[in-house]
Write a structure and sequence with these properties.
With about 550 residues, the chain is an alpha+beta fold. Helix content is about 55%, strand content about 15%. Strand 14 and strand 15 form a beta hairpin. Helix 1 packs antiparallel against helix 6 and helix 10 runs antiparallel to helix 11. The protein starts with a helix and ends in an 18-residue tail after the last strand.
Amino acid sequence: MTLGLRLLLTLLLATLVTATGLGLAVRSAWHDSEEERFHATLREVEREFGHELSLALGELPRVVRPLCAHDPMLETTLTGLQGRSTPVNHRQRLQLWLGDLQRALRLDELALYTEQGVLLATGLSVPADPKLALARSGSLTETAQLRLQPGPAVLQASCSRHEGGSGLLLLATRQLAPLLREVSAGGATLSLAPPEPKLGHSVHRLTPESLPGLTVWVSLSREPLTRSLARLDHRLLALCALSLGLVSVLALLLARSLTRPLVELVQAVRSATQGDERPVVASGGRELVEFASAMNQLLSDLASTRRRLGATERIAAWSETARRVAHEVKNPLAPIRASIETLRRLHARGDQAFEGYFDEATRTVLDEVTRIARIADEFSRFARLPAPRPAPFDFGELLTELASLHSSEAFTIQLSLVELPPLLADREQLSQVLTNLLLNAREACENSREPRVQLELSRVEHERVQLRVSDNGPGIPTELRERIFAPYVTSKPTGTGLGLCIAERIISEHDGELRLEPPTQGGACFVLLLPLHGARRDQPATSPGNSGE
């Protein structure tokens, strides 16, 4: 994951967490505010209902009391009662009078009783049961009261008038249900019975302080609260999306401004590591400039160390080569010297064996001189190896050609290839390396029952190709594995010990690697690694051959 992407994700996550936290806090505060408004509406309903109920309780006695005190119809009725009879036409007039009063005073029931509880007349309502009327009249005063049972809840008030030995009681009734319908605040509905559950509504129970025995149920819709929270949620989501969009744009701009100098710095460092002598220049923050300065110092130190290391390696290589050449040359010098000294002694003494020994001695001297000349030729070839001339070519095609060239009926070369882009390298030098490896593998397994060599080509990390050359021969002796690539080290009686040394040098000058892997199922396995896009431009020489003749 790139630095810019990490920065973008971090800012988006921080913005999302912050916006979510703030949104939840705002929503919670808004919800509490709306809940408080909801309960305020509920309190307003309760207050209004209590106020209306108090007005009704005070108004009803004030309406009824003047009728008993001053109305002539009651006086006429009392006079009739004293005579122990009430004319029929008077009862009809009394009925009409109560009906008009009931309508005018907006009462639900208006009835006139004797003090014994006998119903004389009623208004528009159906006449009540005399026993019930007696129970009512005997328990009421001129103050309005609430009756809950039996029947519907009502408010009742009465007044009485006595004259002589007779008395009358006027009973006024007002039902509570219409009063409940008149009270409305914030969409609340009041009822005396518990309402049926309804989605989106809250039901609360009220008990007015003026009438403790009364229970009123309030159904209040929560839809305004729900709609308000829904609008708030939509606005918060829109604000969150807008914030994320703005932060994304800002993060992209910020990431580009931060990562562009880093990318340029990486390219400059990569160019410097590939041999570009120009110093690394960084733009941007002070930290990048300081890093570029430190990187320039490091690259300078590495270049100096590389030059010293290259000189040291060349000196060490020359020293090792000189020691090997001296050793190889010294071996044939001993028999040459012995032969010449013997010839001189025989010649000085005039020995007759001189003629017979002369032919043998000169033949020995010539053989050893030929051996010295061959050693000189091998050393000259090793020292004069030309620098690589890289050019793109098909590595798989080269392997196929070499496998076809060195295969026979008794010797099998198995190929395992993959599709690769062109390899940037010196085709002739790689052909020389592969030919040396194939010849060594063929000689190693020629005594096997089924001699076989396997070439496995693959692509590995860091843009490199890998070739494994394995055989089913006896393998490399243990004592030679650590120095198999050293000059003049060989396990073959007629070998010069320079083949693998030259092969390793060619691969090293291609910025690659040639190594011997430990055997797993017998035989030997050489692994060749090469960069797919060619060697670095500053790759130093690894042997003294580049320094002169």
